[in-house]
Amino acid sequence: MIQVSPSTNCPYKNIVVEDHYDIVVLGGGPAGATCAALLAEAGKKVVLLERGLTPRFHVGESLLPKCYPTLQRLNLLDRMKNSAFPKKYSVQFVTEMGKVTRPFYFDEYIPHESSQTWQVERGNFDSILLEKAVENGTVVRTNAHVMDVLFDDKRAIGVKVKLKNDAGEDQVLEIASEIVIDASGQSAMIANRLGVKKSDPLLKKGTLWGYFENAIRDEGRDEGATLIMQTEGKKSWFWYIPLSNNIVSVGCTGSMNYMFGDSSLKPADIFARELSKCPEMQRRLEPSTQFGDFKTTKDFSYRATQTVGEGWVMIGDAFGFVDPVYSSGVLLAMVSGEMAADAIIDGYKMNDLSPKQLGRWNQEYISGLENFKKLVYAFYAPDFSFAKFFMEFPECRNHMTDILMGDVFKPGLEEIFDKMGVVLPPSDIEEMQMTSS
To answer: What is the pTM of this model?
Structure first.
Protein backbone atom coordinates (compact mmCIF):
# COMPACT_ATOMS: atom_id res chain seq x y z
CA MET A 1 0.00 0.00 0.00
CA ILE A 2 0.99 3.61 -0.39
CA GLN A 3 3.02 5.05 2.47
CA VAL A 4 0.81 7.62 4.19
CA SER A 5 2.62 8.16 7.47
CA PRO A 6 6.24 8.24 8.62
CA SER A 7 7.81 5.24 10.21
CA THR A 8 8.26 5.41 13.97
CA ASN A 9 11.52 3.52 13.34
CA CYS A 10 12.99 6.27 11.18
CA PRO A 11 16.76 5.54 11.13
CA TYR A 12 17.81 9.19 11.11
CA LYS A 13 15.80 10.72 13.94
CA ASN A 14 18.48 10.41 16.63
CA ILE A 15 21.64 10.87 14.57
CA VAL A 16 24.23 12.99 16.40
CA VAL A 17 24.80 16.36 14.73
CA GLU A 18 28.00 18.36 15.10
CA ASP A 19 28.22 22.16 15.32
CA HIS A 20 30.15 22.72 12.07
CA TYR A 21 29.88 21.40 8.51
CA ASP A 22 31.06 22.55 5.11
CA ILE A 23 27.48 22.55 3.86
CA VAL A 24 24.07 22.47 5.52
CA VAL A 25 21.14 21.28 3.37
CA LEU A 26 17.61 22.21 4.49
CA GLY A 27 15.11 19.56 3.41
CA GLY A 28 15.22 15.87 2.54
CA GLY A 29 13.18 15.81 -0.66
CA PRO A 30 14.59 14.97 -4.11
CA ALA A 31 16.38 18.33 -4.45
CA GLY A 32 18.10 18.23 -1.07
CA ALA A 33 18.93 14.52 -1.16
CA THR A 34 20.36 14.68 -4.69
CA CYS A 35 22.48 17.73 -3.92
CA ALA A 36 23.72 16.32 -0.60
CA ALA A 37 24.60 12.95 -2.15
CA LEU A 38 26.74 14.54 -4.86
CA LEU A 39 28.45 16.98 -2.50
CA ALA A 40 29.30 14.24 0.00
CA GLU A 41 30.56 12.03 -2.80
CA ALA A 42 32.94 14.87 -3.74
CA GLY A 43 34.37 14.80 -0.21
CA LYS A 44 32.50 17.68 1.40
CA LYS A 45 31.29 17.45 4.99
CA VAL A 46 27.51 17.70 4.61
CA VAL A 47 24.57 17.59 7.01
CA LEU A 48 20.97 17.36 5.76
CA LEU A 49 18.22 18.52 8.11
CA GLU A 50 14.70 17.23 7.47
CA ARG A 51 11.84 18.57 9.58
CA GLY A 52 9.72 15.43 9.47
CA LEU A 53 10.41 11.72 9.78
CA THR A 54 10.92 9.32 6.91
CA PRO A 55 9.41 7.85 4.85
CA ARG A 56 7.48 11.09 4.49
CA PHE A 57 4.24 11.47 2.55
CA HIS A 58 4.30 13.74 -0.49
CA VAL A 59 2.23 14.03 -3.64
CA GLY A 60 3.99 14.16 -7.02
CA GLU A 61 4.41 10.56 -8.00
CA SER A 62 5.15 10.65 -11.72
CA LEU A 63 8.77 10.78 -12.88
CA LEU A 64 9.84 12.10 -16.28
CA PRO A 65 12.32 10.20 -18.50
CA LYS A 66 14.91 12.95 -18.13
CA CYS A 67 15.36 11.91 -14.50
CA TYR A 68 17.39 9.04 -15.96
CA PRO A 69 20.78 10.84 -16.22
CA THR A 70 20.66 11.98 -12.61
CA LEU A 71 19.54 8.56 -11.37
CA GLN A 72 22.36 7.05 -13.41
CA ARG A 73 24.90 9.43 -11.91
CA LEU A 74 23.64 8.55 -8.42
CA ASN A 75 24.06 4.85 -9.31
CA LEU A 76 20.38 4.21 -8.56
CA LEU A 77 19.17 2.73 -11.85
CA ASP A 78 19.46 -0.89 -10.70
CA ARG A 79 17.60 -0.03 -7.51
CA MET A 80 14.82 1.57 -9.54
CA LYS A 81 14.68 -1.33 -12.02
CA ASN A 82 14.38 -3.83 -9.17
CA SER A 83 11.66 -1.83 -7.40
CA ALA A 84 7.91 -2.45 -7.51
CA PHE A 85 7.31 0.98 -9.05
CA PRO A 86 5.12 0.70 -12.20
CA LYS A 87 6.93 1.43 -15.44
CA LYS A 88 5.83 4.54 -17.33
CA TYR A 89 6.22 4.63 -21.11
CA SER A 90 3.94 7.48 -22.10
CA VAL A 91 1.56 10.27 -21.21
CA GLN A 92 -1.93 10.52 -22.67
CA PHE A 93 -4.51 13.31 -22.78
CA VAL A 94 -8.31 13.33 -22.71
CA THR A 95 -9.90 16.48 -24.13
CA GLU A 96 -12.77 18.45 -22.62
CA MET A 97 -15.01 16.79 -25.23
CA GLY A 98 -14.05 13.38 -23.87
CA LYS A 99 -11.81 12.35 -26.77
CA VAL A 100 -8.98 10.04 -25.70
CA THR A 101 -5.95 11.10 -27.73
CA ARG A 102 -3.10 8.94 -28.97
CA PRO A 103 -0.45 8.48 -26.27
CA PHE A 104 2.89 10.25 -26.46
CA TYR A 105 5.16 7.21 -26.41
CA PHE A 106 8.60 8.34 -25.33
CA ASP A 107 10.50 5.53 -27.06
CA GLU A 108 9.22 6.69 -30.44
CA TYR A 109 11.48 9.69 -29.98
CA ILE A 110 14.34 8.18 -27.98
CA PRO A 111 14.83 4.44 -28.69
CA HIS A 112 16.82 3.90 -25.50
CA GLU A 113 16.03 2.49 -22.09
CA SER A 114 16.03 6.06 -20.73
CA SER A 115 12.68 6.61 -22.47
CA GLN A 116 11.04 4.42 -19.84
CA THR A 117 10.57 5.86 -16.36
CA TRP A 118 8.51 5.09 -13.25
CA GLN A 119 5.42 6.01 -11.25
CA VAL A 120 6.60 6.17 -7.64
CA GLU A 121 5.26 6.38 -4.11
CA ARG A 122 7.11 9.47 -3.01
CA GLY A 123 7.74 8.27 0.53
CA ASN A 124 9.61 5.24 -0.79
CA PHE A 125 11.33 7.10 -3.64
CA ASP A 126 12.52 9.95 -1.40
CA SER A 127 13.86 7.37 1.05
CA ILE A 128 15.92 5.79 -1.75
CA LEU A 129 17.51 9.17 -2.47
CA LEU A 130 18.16 9.83 1.22
CA GLU A 131 19.76 6.41 1.60
CA LYS A 132 22.09 7.25 -1.28
CA ALA A 133 23.02 10.53 0.39
CA VAL A 134 23.89 8.62 3.57
CA GLU A 135 25.85 5.98 1.63
CA ASN A 136 27.88 8.80 0.08
CA GLY A 137 28.71 10.25 3.50
CA THR A 138 25.96 12.77 4.26
CA VAL A 139 24.85 13.09 7.88
CA VAL A 140 21.05 13.00 7.69
CA ARG A 141 19.04 14.14 10.69
CA THR A 142 15.25 13.97 10.66
CA ASN A 143 12.87 15.46 13.23
CA ALA A 144 14.97 18.61 12.90
CA HIS A 145 13.15 21.94 12.92
CA VAL A 146 15.32 24.66 11.38
CA MET A 147 14.29 27.79 13.25
CA ASP A 148 16.40 30.29 11.34
CA VAL A 149 19.19 30.75 8.82
CA LEU A 150 21.98 32.69 10.51
CA PHE A 151 23.53 35.65 8.69
CA ASP A 152 26.57 37.83 9.29
CA ASP A 153 25.45 40.94 7.41
CA LYS A 154 24.46 39.47 4.01
CA ARG A 155 26.43 36.24 4.32
CA ALA A 156 24.76 33.03 5.50
CA ILE A 157 26.96 31.45 8.15
CA GLY A 158 24.81 28.56 9.37
CA VAL A 159 21.48 27.67 10.91
CA LYS A 160 19.71 27.46 14.25
CA VAL A 161 17.92 24.14 14.59
CA LYS A 162 15.72 22.53 17.22
CA LEU A 163 16.32 18.82 17.72
CA LYS A 164 14.82 16.27 20.08
CA ASN A 165 17.24 14.27 22.20
CA ASP A 166 16.84 10.62 23.21
CA ALA A 167 14.60 11.66 26.10
CA GLY A 168 12.26 13.51 23.76
CA GLU A 169 13.41 16.90 25.02
CA ASP A 170 14.03 19.86 22.72
CA GLN A 171 17.61 20.88 22.15
CA VAL A 172 18.51 24.07 20.24
CA LEU A 173 21.79 23.94 18.34
CA GLU A 174 23.60 26.42 16.11
CA ILE A 175 25.39 24.79 13.20
CA ALA A 176 28.06 26.81 11.41
CA SER A 177 28.70 26.24 7.69
CA GLU A 178 30.31 27.78 4.64
CA ILE A 179 27.19 27.23 2.51
CA VAL A 180 23.49 26.84 3.34
CA ILE A 181 21.41 25.12 0.65
CA ASP A 182 17.69 25.80 0.90
CA ALA A 183 15.83 22.72 -0.32
CA SER A 184 12.90 23.31 2.05
CA GLY A 185 10.30 22.91 -0.71
CA GLN A 186 7.29 25.19 -0.79
CA SER A 187 8.18 26.42 2.68
CA ALA A 188 10.85 28.39 0.76
CA MET A 189 12.57 29.34 4.00
CA ILE A 190 15.18 31.79 2.70
CA ALA A 191 12.91 33.30 0.04
CA ASN A 192 10.26 34.06 2.64
CA ARG A 193 12.86 35.32 5.13
CA LEU A 194 14.30 37.75 2.58
CA GLY A 195 10.93 38.65 1.05
CA VAL A 196 11.94 37.61 -2.47
CA LYS A 197 9.18 35.09 -3.23
CA LYS A 198 6.98 36.28 -6.12
CA SER A 199 3.71 34.55 -7.02
CA ASP A 200 2.34 34.32 -10.55
CA PRO A 201 -1.11 35.97 -10.48
CA LEU A 202 -2.24 33.97 -13.53
CA LEU A 203 -1.58 30.55 -12.03
CA LYS A 204 -3.35 30.61 -8.68
CA LYS A 205 -4.54 27.02 -8.66
CA GLY A 206 -5.91 24.70 -6.03
CA THR A 207 -5.74 20.91 -5.99
CA LEU A 208 -7.45 18.07 -4.21
CA TRP A 209 -6.43 14.47 -4.60
CA GLY A 210 -6.92 10.98 -3.25
CA TYR A 211 -6.03 7.34 -3.82
CA PHE A 212 -8.23 4.60 -5.26
CA GLU A 213 -7.91 0.83 -5.30
CA ASN A 214 -9.00 -1.41 -8.21
CA ALA A 215 -9.55 1.39 -10.73
CA ILE A 216 -9.51 0.44 -14.41
CA ARG A 217 -6.09 0.47 -16.05
CA ASP A 218 -5.11 -0.09 -19.65
CA GLU A 219 -3.18 -3.17 -20.66
CA GLY A 220 0.41 -3.82 -21.65
CA ARG A 221 2.79 -0.92 -21.67
CA ASP A 222 -0.16 1.49 -21.36
CA GLU A 223 -0.87 0.20 -17.86
CA GLY A 224 1.52 2.68 -16.24
CA ALA A 225 0.73 5.71 -18.40
CA THR A 226 0.04 9.10 -16.86
CA LEU A 227 -3.39 10.37 -17.98
CA ILE A 228 -4.32 14.05 -18.06
CA MET A 229 -8.08 14.60 -18.44
CA GLN A 230 -9.75 17.95 -18.94
CA THR A 231 -13.30 18.44 -17.68
CA GLU A 232 -16.16 19.91 -19.65
CA GLY A 233 -15.62 23.63 -19.95
CA LYS A 234 -11.89 23.32 -19.09
CA LYS A 235 -12.41 24.79 -15.62
CA SER A 236 -10.47 21.91 -14.09
CA TRP A 237 -8.45 18.86 -15.02
CA PHE A 238 -7.70 15.44 -13.52
CA TRP A 239 -4.53 13.42 -13.28
CA TYR A 240 -4.58 9.63 -13.16
CA ILE A 241 -1.29 8.05 -12.05
CA PRO A 242 -1.07 4.25 -11.58
CA LEU A 243 0.96 3.20 -8.55
CA SER A 244 1.96 -0.18 -7.16
CA ASN A 245 -0.38 -2.55 -5.29
CA ASN A 246 -3.27 -1.68 -7.62
CA ILE A 247 -3.53 1.88 -6.27
CA VAL A 248 -3.96 4.95 -8.47
CA SER A 249 -3.41 8.56 -7.53
CA VAL A 250 -6.22 10.80 -8.78
CA GLY A 251 -6.14 14.57 -8.40
CA CYS A 252 -8.14 17.53 -9.68
CA THR A 253 -6.79 21.05 -10.22
CA GLY A 254 -8.51 24.33 -11.07
CA SER A 255 -8.43 27.97 -10.05
CA MET A 256 -8.57 28.56 -6.31
CA ASN A 257 -11.83 30.48 -6.54
CA TYR A 258 -13.47 27.83 -8.67
CA MET A 259 -12.26 24.85 -6.67
CA PHE A 260 -12.62 26.17 -3.13
CA GLY A 261 -14.71 29.33 -3.42
CA ASP A 262 -17.75 27.67 -1.82
CA SER A 263 -16.70 27.09 1.79
CA SER A 264 -19.78 24.93 2.43
CA LEU A 265 -18.43 22.18 0.18
CA LYS A 266 -16.24 19.44 1.58
CA PRO A 267 -13.36 18.03 -0.52
CA ALA A 268 -15.46 14.96 -1.34
CA ASP A 269 -18.26 17.21 -2.62
CA ILE A 270 -15.85 19.17 -4.84
CA PHE A 271 -14.36 15.95 -6.20
CA ALA A 272 -17.82 14.57 -7.00
CA ARG A 273 -18.79 17.83 -8.73
CA GLU A 274 -15.74 17.72 -11.00
CA LEU A 275 -15.96 13.97 -11.55
CA SER A 276 -19.46 14.46 -12.98
CA LYS A 277 -17.84 16.57 -15.72
CA CYS A 278 -15.29 13.92 -16.75
CA PRO A 279 -16.91 10.73 -18.17
CA GLU A 280 -13.58 9.00 -18.84
CA MET A 281 -12.53 9.37 -15.21
CA GLN A 282 -15.96 8.15 -14.12
CA ARG A 283 -15.45 5.03 -16.22
CA ARG A 284 -12.05 4.29 -14.74
CA LEU A 285 -13.10 4.83 -11.13
CA GLU A 286 -16.46 3.05 -11.34
CA PRO A 287 -15.23 -0.29 -9.88
CA SER A 288 -12.77 1.32 -7.46
CA THR A 289 -12.78 1.97 -3.73
CA GLN A 290 -11.24 5.11 -2.26
CA PHE A 291 -8.17 4.46 -0.14
CA GLY A 292 -7.75 7.11 2.58
CA ASP A 293 -9.17 10.64 2.61
CA PHE A 294 -8.91 13.48 0.11
CA LYS A 295 -6.10 15.97 0.57
CA THR A 296 -5.95 19.57 -0.61
CA THR A 297 -3.20 22.01 -1.44
CA LYS A 298 -2.58 25.39 -3.03
CA ASP A 299 -0.47 25.04 -6.15
CA PHE A 300 0.36 28.72 -6.53
CA SER A 301 3.06 29.19 -9.12
CA TYR A 302 5.90 31.28 -7.74
CA ARG A 303 9.57 31.99 -8.12
CA ALA A 304 12.20 33.67 -6.01
CA THR A 305 13.51 36.88 -7.52
CA GLN A 306 16.89 36.17 -5.95
CA THR A 307 18.05 32.57 -5.84
CA VAL A 308 21.62 32.79 -4.63
CA GLY A 309 23.63 35.03 -2.33
CA GLU A 310 26.73 35.05 -0.20
CA GLY A 311 26.93 31.60 1.33
CA TRP A 312 23.46 30.42 0.30
CA VAL A 313 21.66 28.77 -2.63
CA MET A 314 18.03 27.79 -3.33
CA ILE A 315 17.09 24.60 -5.19
CA GLY A 316 13.91 22.69 -6.05
CA ASP A 317 10.59 24.15 -4.93
CA ALA A 318 12.45 26.57 -2.67
CA PHE A 319 13.73 28.08 -5.95
CA GLY A 320 10.31 28.08 -7.66
CA PHE A 321 7.21 26.04 -8.44
CA VAL A 322 5.41 25.86 -11.77
CA ASP A 323 2.25 23.70 -11.80
CA PRO A 324 1.46 20.00 -11.35
CA VAL A 325 0.04 19.42 -14.84
CA TYR A 326 3.21 18.11 -16.53
CA SER A 327 4.69 16.28 -13.50
CA SER A 328 7.78 18.47 -13.61
CA GLY A 329 8.39 18.78 -9.87
CA VAL A 330 10.71 15.83 -9.16
CA LEU A 331 12.72 16.38 -12.35
CA LEU A 332 13.29 20.06 -11.61
CA ALA A 333 14.17 19.25 -8.02
CA MET A 334 16.79 16.65 -8.96
CA VAL A 335 18.24 18.69 -11.84
CA SER A 336 18.54 21.85 -9.74
CA GLY A 337 20.17 19.82 -6.97
CA GLU A 338 22.65 18.38 -9.43
CA MET A 339 23.42 21.72 -11.09
CA ALA A 340 23.91 23.43 -7.74
CA ALA A 341 26.17 20.62 -6.48
CA ASP A 342 28.39 20.88 -9.56
CA ALA A 343 28.71 24.65 -9.18
CA ILE A 344 29.67 24.26 -5.51
CA ILE A 345 32.14 21.43 -6.17
CA ASP A 346 33.85 23.47 -8.89
CA GLY A 347 33.76 26.52 -6.63
CA TYR A 348 35.72 24.68 -3.96
CA LYS A 349 38.26 23.54 -6.56
CA MET A 350 38.75 27.13 -7.76
CA ASN A 351 38.58 28.63 -4.26
CA ASP A 352 35.60 30.68 -5.49
CA LEU A 353 32.35 30.46 -3.52
CA SER A 354 31.07 33.81 -4.75
CA PRO A 355 27.36 34.22 -5.57
CA LYS A 356 28.28 34.32 -9.27
CA GLN A 357 29.93 30.90 -9.05
CA LEU A 358 27.28 29.37 -6.78
CA GLY A 359 24.54 30.54 -9.14
CA ARG A 360 26.26 29.97 -12.48
CA TRP A 361 23.55 27.46 -13.42
CA ASN A 362 20.58 29.74 -12.74
CA GLN A 363 19.96 31.09 -16.22
CA GLU A 364 20.18 27.68 -17.89
CA TYR A 365 17.82 26.27 -15.30
CA ILE A 366 15.40 29.19 -15.66
CA SER A 367 15.20 28.61 -19.41
CA GLY A 368 13.97 25.07 -18.78
CA LEU A 369 11.59 26.27 -16.09
CA GLU A 370 10.19 28.80 -18.55
CA ASN A 371 9.61 26.09 -21.17
CA PHE A 372 7.48 24.13 -18.72
CA LYS A 373 5.65 27.29 -17.71
CA LYS A 374 4.88 28.35 -21.29
CA LEU A 375 3.32 24.96 -21.94
CA VAL A 376 1.26 25.34 -18.76
CA TYR A 377 -0.09 28.66 -20.03
CA ALA A 378 -1.08 26.98 -23.29
CA PHE A 379 -2.82 24.17 -21.38
CA TYR A 380 -4.92 26.61 -19.38
CA ALA A 381 -5.71 28.96 -22.28
CA PRO A 382 -9.49 28.63 -22.80
CA ASP A 383 -9.35 29.18 -26.56
CA PHE A 384 -6.34 26.97 -27.29
CA SER A 385 -6.58 23.38 -28.58
CA PHE A 386 -3.52 21.14 -28.74
CA ALA A 387 -5.30 18.88 -31.25
CA LYS A 388 -5.89 21.77 -33.66
CA PHE A 389 -2.39 23.06 -33.07
CA PHE A 390 -0.74 19.77 -34.04
CA MET A 391 -2.97 19.45 -37.10
CA GLU A 392 -1.66 22.82 -38.28
CA PHE A 393 1.92 22.33 -37.07
CA PRO A 394 2.64 18.55 -37.01
CA GLU A 395 6.37 19.26 -36.91
CA CYS A 396 5.92 20.64 -33.37
CA ARG A 397 4.84 17.29 -31.94
CA ASN A 398 8.49 16.39 -31.39
CA HIS A 399 9.02 19.55 -29.34
CA MET A 400 5.93 18.75 -27.29
CA THR A 401 7.28 15.28 -26.58
CA ASP A 402 10.65 16.74 -25.60
CA ILE A 403 8.94 18.81 -22.93
CA LEU A 404 6.71 15.96 -21.77
CA MET A 405 9.87 13.88 -21.33
CA GLY A 406 11.52 16.70 -19.39
CA ASP A 407 14.08 17.61 -22.06
CA VAL A 408 13.36 21.28 -21.42
CA PHE A 409 16.95 22.50 -21.68
CA LYS A 410 17.20 21.44 -25.32
CA PRO A 411 17.95 24.26 -27.80
CA GLY A 412 15.25 25.14 -30.31
CA LEU A 413 12.19 24.50 -28.16
CA GLU A 414 11.14 28.14 -28.51
CA GLU A 415 9.82 27.26 -31.99
CA ILE A 416 6.73 25.60 -30.56
CA PHE A 417 5.88 28.63 -28.43
CA ASP A 418 6.42 31.09 -31.26
CA LYS A 419 3.74 29.21 -33.20
CA MET A 420 1.32 28.76 -30.29
CA GLY A 421 0.91 32.47 -29.66
CA VAL A 422 -0.79 31.94 -26.29
CA VAL A 423 2.08 32.37 -23.85
CA LEU A 424 3.27 35.40 -21.92
CA PRO A 425 4.24 38.38 -24.04
CA PRO A 426 8.01 38.93 -24.22
CA SER A 427 7.89 41.94 -21.90
CA ASP A 428 6.32 39.85 -19.15
CA ILE A 429 8.81 37.03 -19.64
CA GLU A 430 11.69 39.46 -19.41
CA GLU A 431 10.24 40.98 -16.25
CA MET A 432 9.96 37.55 -14.64
CA GLN A 433 13.52 36.50 -15.51
CA MET A 434 15.69 36.15 -12.43
CA THR A 435 19.27 37.12 -12.01
CA SER A 436 21.80 35.11 -10.11
CA SER A 437 22.60 37.89 -7.69
So the answer is: 0.92
